[in-house]
Amino acid sequence: xxxxxxxxxxxxxxxxxxxVDTLWTARYVVTMDSQRRLIEQGAIAVKDGAIxxxxxxxxxxxxxxxxxxxxxxxxxxIPGLIxxxxxxxxxxxxxxxxxxALQEWLEKFIFPAEARNLNAEFVRWGxxxxxxxxxLGGVTTFADMYYFEDAVAEETKAAGMRGVxxxxxxxxxxxxxKTPESALAATERFMARFANDPLIVPAVAxxxxxxxxxxxxxxARQLANRFKMPLLIHLSETRRENDDLKAKRGxxxxxxxxxxxxxxGRTLGAHGVWLDDADIAILKQRGTxxxxxPSSNMKLASGAAPLAKILGAGIAMGLGTDGPAGSNNDFNxxxxxxxxxxxxxxxxxxxxxxxxxxxxxxxxxxxxxxxxLENRIGSLExxxxxxxxxxxxxxxxxxxxxxxxxxxxxxxxxxxxxDVMVEGRLIVRSGASLALDAAAxxxxxxEYGNTVRNSLR
Amino acid sequence: xxxxxxxxxxxxxxxxxxxVDTLWTARYVVTMDSQRRLIEQGAIAVKDGAIxxxxxxxxxxxxxxxxxxxxxxxxxxIPGLIxxxxxxxxxxxxxxxxxxALQEWLEKFIFPAEARNLNAEFVRWGxxxxxxxxxLGGVTTFADMYYFEDAVAEETKAAGMRGVxxxxxxxxxxxxxKTPESALAATERFMARFANDPLIVPAVAxxxxxxxxxxxxxxARQLANRFKMPLLIHLSETRRENDDLKAKRGxxxxxxxxxxxxxxGRTLGAHGVWLDDADIAILKQRGTxxxxxPSSNMKLASGAAPLAKILGAGIAMGLGTDGPAGSNNDFNxxxxxxxxxxxxxxxxxxxxxxxxxxxxxxxxxxxxxxxxLENRIGSLExxxxxxxxxxxxxxxxxxxxxxxxxxxxxxxxxxxxxDVMVEGRLIVRSGASLALDAAAxxxxxxEYGNTVRNSLR
Lengths: 457, 457
What we know:
By secondary structure, chain A is of the alpha/beta class. Chain A is built from 16 helices and 16 strands.
């Protein structure tokens, strides 16, 4: 188009405007694009599930004719938040056992609770509860590692959310599969089923190096690569995980995965608390993504991940809540951003460590890169899928406003999210889920709570 | 009364019931009394500003005839939270300067912002904004250290909140007083004015040992003791504060205060990050209270206070938010409880450190003890003033419920608070302040935000 014509189109209301589905306007649009554009009195035009433009509201109002207008003059629009590591269905075990030593927590509570209660229906309701909480808090995408992942995928789609959903593969018998071979075969069917889904990225999730044989880890990688899908794995979460492997085989988990070829293909490692410099060099070379889980790492006393080194190396590290049954108690990315920044500051003895803007980057564009979805989500710019959250500035804790990033990370809360869009479709409006029946989910969660409690007696 | 008569009164609806002002009922009443009674289907009867009884709802319904009933079947009633250390009026500087080194933060932002903007009117609006945010988040009492403390007291009363309000005394000229003598004289008038107030405890707040002469510290203590009021002071917040005093005078701040006789009388020390074993022994002996501020200590990289030793010694340590202009960005006691527990776990490498119930104790009864108000507030039991908060269990993040303490500390949020009572008077109902004009405060906060921003250009 001729430059003159563009100018005319901007200036002249009688010039032909382009039809779009939705035009958002807001006090601020935080793009998290490569220039980190922060647009005051900004707007976003959405068509066919994608962002057509993000720019000044005055400009976009002239350029587009929307079917639907969403004017949020007291809100900030941010890229939908990305929960890069969780176990969604464990929502039904929220707080079942806190403040315990790891072995007691696992052996007296988590393993028995799962052994006695876990089935596809449990996972279905647990995913609904988690999806409800996540969307109300501005999360649009989550990376899951659990059992019965077909049920997780169905419920994620029904909720209107985006998921990178990893079917667990583990060496011992679990609720959905008695052998890793059975789990791998099911994962193959799962991948075939959701291979072309607009919302679901099916993945394979070998639990960790210490719970899988080398052969299983290799097969998981091969399966993922056959479908060009990601592999999700817990990686150097605890000191013990590292120490045990060093004692047995004289190497770190990252070193072992690399030797086995498991990092050759899209991989997301969760936690990475105990990565050393050699591990970081390997992960950088292989393009492996990571998920930082500050709540979980603090609550389980796992430690503080070396974020300066990891992010400094250019490794994509997102933020995750981990599961809510001991590691955490909620799916709140606002709290993870706040904690990520504060944990780095106190452990590195430097108040400048992980500034607010970088914490927000971890919850958005870095998370997208870690999951291999940076061409689709993680920022608000033309060409990306329309995953957007509106965060209200009306709270008493939201005034005054000096710095938008600082406000988002240190002052605003998940409860300030008012509207959420995924793939161009509004899934939360005025703080309520449009697709999910919140009252029914609450009732069912209470029922499951009683069942689980009785099962542990 | 004869036991038989008590039984009859409970059983017989025609027996004469005692008139009270308010009867609360709720799914749980968390008393935080000496037996830590947790009452399912509980109730609280309130008369003339005091709690008459806390017990099972079935029992209290028969025993009392209330003028007002507050039935909250989906909520937990907790003692109103106590913010044991803050600078309320700094709300208007919320997030003015984050992620900076301490000197840059103070010299480029806080000192100039205060020098150019601070006056009684600023403090008045700042206190209103802080009071609004605190009450909406379940805080009923706060301990303040700032300037123009008369204005803070007037606004605290107008908001219906309880405050232990410390007029700052400092060696250099500040907005309200050019000399410590002037500040001490004003504090004397302030103490006389509010000596018998039901809501306000006037206090003297010498800023710290490194910003006051020995003589000023002694005079502050004498003044406090003359009125039987507390002395509030920053104590061993940073390593540098300790190192500097050791280099200059060969002793810790606590040791110096003790030598000067400053700890002989009700004292609250804020932070206490760098207390050593000898300091802890002194504070225990003197009955000094402390305020732990985990958000601030993490964000400013001050360190992690030795809670195991402090609480283990039986010292009363409450929880504080500190000010929201860099140290923190909000007045959220739910986040401080969560952070206090998680910071202890990760720094002590023990997931059992500071369990949820103890974190809640710090925000309630321990805070009350630290402020010398344990006979009036901090627990829900007969004889205490009626400072009560209702926390809703309706959120998606609030289900299911396995452990009430765990849910309160790790899952529930300030935004779940629905109703708040202070001194028997409801100040928040259905999430809205009854005394404060939230919209007017928001507008004024935005105006002050612009003024402060322009003043820093």
